[in-house]
Structures are given as structure tokens and as C-alpha cells.
Amino acid sequence: MSIDSSPDPTEAKRPGVGASLVEVFTSAQGEGPEVGRTTVFVRFGGCDLRCRWCDSPHTWRPVADWRIETAPGSAVFEGRTNPVDCGELVDVIDALAPSPATWISLTGGEPLLQPEAIEAVARGLASRGRRIYLETHGLHGSVLSRFVELIDLVSMDWKLASDVRPGPGVEAPPGEDFHDAHEAFLRVATRARQVYVKTVLTPSTRDEELEAMFDRIARVSSGIPLVLQPVTPMGGIKAIPDSKQLLAWLARAEARLADVRLIPQTHPIYGAL
Ligand code: SF4
Q1: Which of 19, 132, 138, 273 could form an SS bridge with 156, CB 3.0 to 4.6 Å?
Q2: d(C-alpha 134, C-alpha 112), whole Å
Q3: What is residue 174's predicted lDDT score, i.e. its pLDDT?
Q4: What's the CA gap between 120 and 267, in Å, rounded?
Q5: Positions of the chain with pLDDT under 70
Q6: Ligand 1 near 265 CB (within 6 A)
Q7: CB atoms < 10 A from the CB of 75, how many?
Q8: Element (H, E) at 107
Q9: CATH number, domain at 177?
Q10: Domain total for the chain?
Q11: Which residue's CA is minimally distant from atom 2 of ligand 1?
């Protein structure tokens, strides 16, 4: 699954490539297998999906101005104007990250909707030896394929049609689910150093869509880690599935896949971004 790549130092800065951001800040990772680790979050603006539980609807549309935390964990921000030059962005990310071990999360919104910018930022960060964590809804594999070997960890959402719709003006996928596009994306993502799949479980989640997801992941590799994430109630979601249901889904997943964990979000507990 891992590919040895040697980033080209000449790619540290690619002047002229602009990114449209919402915010940059430092916090602890609140989801997935790296939960609790210090992470610089780089939120790109714009998303082509609408998830009922979305905790960052302020990222759905590109904005004129973005904000950056003035010191790690301070929650004090200053405003900047979009677009930001990707070379300058790599500089500010580098300055905010407290140590070489700090994860840099490229997230959104959906970061792969800005192909030139996400590639330029990934190449710049890789040239400085930064640990790159890509958080994506897992539908734009052709964009990821341009630089996937530079990514240390792909956190790929597997969207279930029971709670997720395409955004305004976006064509619905054939069959009205996302399984084909997700499977194709996952095949690309396995070329990164690590990948895991995360899916959000709500009271609307259907057994058959979970079974289809388990099948698709196993077709790529049954060893790919899967995180089952009980929804955090917000937006249109008022309740979580009961524990009996969650444990039943966990058991069904473990019957098909080798590495499955049930992990809720942690950052809402301590009120972090
Ligand atoms: S893909 Fe992410 S940013 Fe977009 S609506 Fe879903 S949770 Fe929100």
C-alpha cells in the first residue's frame, strides 16, 4: 500500500496558484484512528455535497475572506483575503505547526474541488517533510491520483445515500448512491502511505447500504481500516442510533473486514473547533 516518493524541492512553492480557504487553525484531531493528535486544519472553501449532519456548513460555499489563528490553540484569528498564494500558504502552515510530528489536515468543504491548489499545497508541504492528512468525501479520485503518493494518510468518507445528497446544481450519481465512485476513489487512495474509510451512522442508516459498503471495501482490500462513527446530533439530526444497533453494525462489519472500530467524534466533548 505504501509507495516510496521523494518530493521535488523545486515544488516547495508554485507561485501563481491560488487557494480559496475558509480558515486555518490548530486543534486536536477529533475523529478516526489519529484522534487526539495535534493537527493544523486547513479548510478549503466549497463543497458539492450536503450531508444532513454536516458540522461545517460555513464551508459549503467559497467566501471572500478567510481567517487564520494567530497562535496555535489561541482561538484568536485575523482575517485574510481570498485567493491565497499556495506558496505563502505553505509558509503560514509551516509556522503554525508546533513540531515535525504535527499532522497537517487538508480539509473542507471538499479540498479536491480545487485541484491546482490542493496539489500545489501538498507538494509544498511534502517538500518540507510535513505529515499530510487528507480529509475528503472520497468522490474525486482523478484529482487525488495526481499527487496521492505524497499523502501520508487519506481519511476517506463513504457517504450513504440515506443522509447525503448532491449539492445544488450537482448531478446525482447513477443509482442514487455513491458506491461506484467511492470504490474507484478507494483504489486510488490505496496508493497513499495509509488510508482508512470512515462512515457516519445515523438512525436513518440502512442495513443494505452498509452491507454494500462492506462488500465494496473488501473488493479493494479487506485489510483497509474502517471507522464506524455514530453521528453527533446537529443540523437535521436529533438522535444517534441506540447502542444495540451500533454494536450489531460493528459485528456485521467485523465479519467482512479485518480492522473495524466504532469511534465517535471527540472534539464536541471539549468544545474545540
Ligand atoms: S462532504 Fe463534508 S463539508 Fe460537505 S456537506 Fe458533507 S460533511 Fe459537510
Answers
A1: 138
A2: 9
A3: 67
A4: 29
A5: 1-15, 174, 273
A6: no
A7: 12
A8: strand 103-107
A9: 3.20.20.70
A10: 1
A11: 109
pLDDT per residue as tens digits for the range 247-269: 999 999 999 999 999 999 998 88
Q: Does any domain span residue 2?
A: no
Is 4 inside a domain boundary?
no
Query: pLDDT tens-digit profile of 32-45?
Result: 999 999 999 999 99
**What does each C-alpha distance from 104 to 129, 131, 167, 182, 256 come to in angstroms?**
11, 6, 27, 23, 32
Ligand 1 closest atom vs CA 108: 3
28 lies in some domain: yes
Domain interval for residue 33: 9-270
Taking the C-alpha atoms of residue 69 and residue 26, their distance in angstroms, rounded to an integer, is 7
The position carrying cell 436529533 is: 238
CA-nearest residue for atom 3, ligand 1, is: 109
54 CA from centroid of ligand 1 (Å): 5
> What's the pTM value of the predicted model, to 2 decimals?
0.92
Distance CA 171, CA 168 (A): 9
CA of 245 relative to ligand 1 center, distance in Å:
24
| 98: in domain | yes
Q: Are 151 and 122 in contact (CB under 8 A)?
A: yes
